[in-house]
Amino acid sequence: MSAIRIERLRWWHIRELLPIEDDLFGAERWSAAMFWNELASGHYYRIARDSSGIVGYAGLAVTGPDEAWIQNIAVRRDRQRAGVGRALLDDLLAEADRRGARHVLLEVAVDNDPARTLYGRYGFVEVGRRRGYYQPSNTDALVMSREGSGGA
User: pLDDT per residue over 115-127, tens digit each?
Assistant: First the structure.
């Protein structure tokens, strides 16, 4: 496997990441328009790329003077458990710190044990549950939070 590079997500990357989104999330996938909206809103989005193309992507929205939400982290199935998700999460958390976010939050499907384990390793703890959040599967989302350095 070739080295991973983390780069800024550009509008022309959206077409390449949609098959990953579809494979991982099926009926609950984001549309191209949703990614366009995230970019148009100025949110922080990154891709992970190697010689085979885009292998993952992630986004962060800073929502207040000291709060940020991880919008998504997705890694192509053939590259999972190879450090891609960690590299993307490291990048998002560093950006949250640069922007002064003292609280970083995310939502994760209650049945996504690998992601929950990863987030737990980074100090995220469960602070709430959104019943039936993911549709059409009606899967609950756990809300997880991590206290950051806030740029300190």
Answer: 999 999 999 999 9
Establish whether 134 is a catalytic residue.
no
CB 87 within 8 A of CB 110: no
Catalytic, 21? Answer no
Q: If 0-12 CB within 10 Å is exposed, 13-18 middle and 19+ buried, where does residue 15 land?
A: exposed
- Report the predicted TM-score, pTM, of the whole model to 2 decimal places: 0.91
Please pick, among 38, 44, 107, 134, the residue that the annotation labels catalytic: 107
Domain count, the chain: 1
Specify the length of the chain in residues: 152
* Beta bridge partners of residue 82, listed in sequence order: none
CATH of the domain at 9: 3.40.630.30
37-40: long-range pairs with CB below 8 Å, 24+ = 38/71, 39/9, 39/11
pLDDT band at 151 (very low <50, low <70, confident <90, very high): very low
Q: How far is the C-alpha of 81 from the C-alpha of 136, rounded, in Å?
A: 27
152 inside domain: no
Environment class of 4 (CB within 10 Å of its CB; exposed 0-12, middle 13-18, buried 19+):
middle
Catalytic one of 119, 126, 133, 147 = 119
Q: What is the C-alpha radius of gyration for the chain, rounded to an integer number of angstroms?
A: 15
